Amino acid sequence: MKNEKEEVDIMRMPEWKRKKFLQEAGELENISSGLKDQALKNVLLGRAQSLRRVAFSQINR
After folding, report:
1. How far is C-alpha 10 from the chain's CA centre?
2. Residue 44 CB coordination number (10 Å)
3. Number of domains observed in the structure of the chain
4. CB contact at 8 A, 52 and 36
5. Secondary structure (DSSP) of 5-39
6. How far apart are CA 34 and CA 50, in angstroms?
7. Whether this model's pTM surpasses 0.85
8. Which pLDDT belongs to residue 15?
9. Residue 53 near residue 59 (C-beta atoms within 8 A)
């Protein structure tokens, strides 16, 4: 049930929010590039990838 609501919210995502998600993803990638701890790096990169996926999900529909 929650997934259906999330899909609806994503479909209605305004452009400014999509840009904010992409900006946050870029910032996380920049932060992760300077880290030596691979586990933490993977967490940040995974979060960045999730944000990009959500931001582009509406575009690809």
Report:
1. 12
2. 19
3. 1
4. no
5. HHHHHHHT--HHHHHHHHHHHHHHHHHHHT---HH
6. 20
7. no
8. 86
9. no
